């Protein structure tokens, strides 16, 4: 094992970095954002593009190979295509992706594509306009659909749909989303509702479990079989329909935690390094970036942070403690 690799105390080698470019968002999904007056970080605390690029450049020699840009809503960050262009040009970066709610995607998809972005995930819980308004507190379903269409027109290599599954709310959306994905030739990934909402409304009995989703789709459409080319380190367990048309991902953070194979780090918009979405502790990387630390100091700081990574979030035990930040502040 190379000395430069980012390895934690459990032998997990880290190759993926999620970078939140802003904690601001233009919708108010109930499982993520408060309806009124969200607490945003001061703008001067948000990492500048050159700081983000420096972090990624320094982590590439340590084994980071893939970067995903998130938020908040990343497309509300001005001139995001400039950051994409700088990151895409870094030697050694094998993959650059972005996760968005899609509201601004139709007009930004082309400049992002020209800048080098080829992989995009669009958050879409439902195709039902009324339920979309209830979940997001806005009326913009057509904008999201237009953004997906535009990405397909431009030839993005990967377009995925992310849908949060909430019991008592989105059961009726599972099958229509799968049909939608089959028709367009994109992947839809169902994500179990997690305890990261700003209103502290999460309850375990509101989680629509991955096994139930798999059963519902197999009965309503046709049997699903494990995808033969699935990435064993990915958070989603992937399946394909028996006829080969359509790909389904199940992110079972609650019912089937994947901590043992986790290979991801997170960088918040305000410059905190986190080794887990549910982490209680975080590491102030921005302080080093803005205090004149040299490259070696920053790399060693990240190594030490990774070495402290816990075994897992213990979401299914009495020991679980909800992180002090909600999802939009951590980075999706």
**Cα end-to-end separation:** 30 Å
Average of the residue pLDDT scores: 93
Into how many domains do the coordinates divide? 1
Task: Show unreliable segments.
Answer: none
Q: What percent strand?
A: 15-25%
The CATH architecture name reads Alpha-Beta Barrel
Which CATH top level class fits? Alpha Beta
SSE string, helices as H and strands as E: EHEHEHEHHEHEHEEEEEEHHH
How large is the radius of gyration?
19 Å
Q: How would you characterize the largest beta sheet? A: 12 strands, mixed
CATH topology: TIM Barrel
**Name given to the CATH homologous superfamily:** Aldolase class I
Shape: globular
Which strands sit side by side, in order, in the main sheet? Answer: 7-8-9-6-5-4-3-2-1-10-11-12
Number of strands: 12
Number of helices: 10
Sheet/helix structural class:
alpha/beta
Share of helix, binned: 25-40%
Question: What is this entry, summarized?
Answer:
The protein has about 325 residues and is of the alpha/beta class. The protein is built from ten helices and twelve strands.
Set down the secondary structure blueprint.
Elements: E1 16-20, H1 49-59, E2 66-70, H2 80-88, E3 95-100, H3 105-115, E4 119-123, H4 129-136, H5 141-154, E5 158-165, H6 174-184, E6 187-192, H7 210-220, E7 224-226, E8 237-241, E9 247-251, E10 264-267, E11 272-274, E12 283-284, H8 285-289, H9 295-307, H10 327-330
Helix pairs in contact: 1-2, 2-3, 3-5
Features:
332 residues, alpha/beta, TIM Barrel, 12-stranded mixed sheet, 12 strands, 29% helix
Task: Characterise this structure.
The chain is 29% helix and 17% strand. The protein is built from ten helices and twelve strands. The chain has 332 residues and is an alpha/beta fold. Helix 1 (49-59) runs parallel beside helix 2 (80-88) and helix 2 runs parallel beside helix 3 (105-115). The protein starts with 15 loop residues before the first strand and ends with a helix.
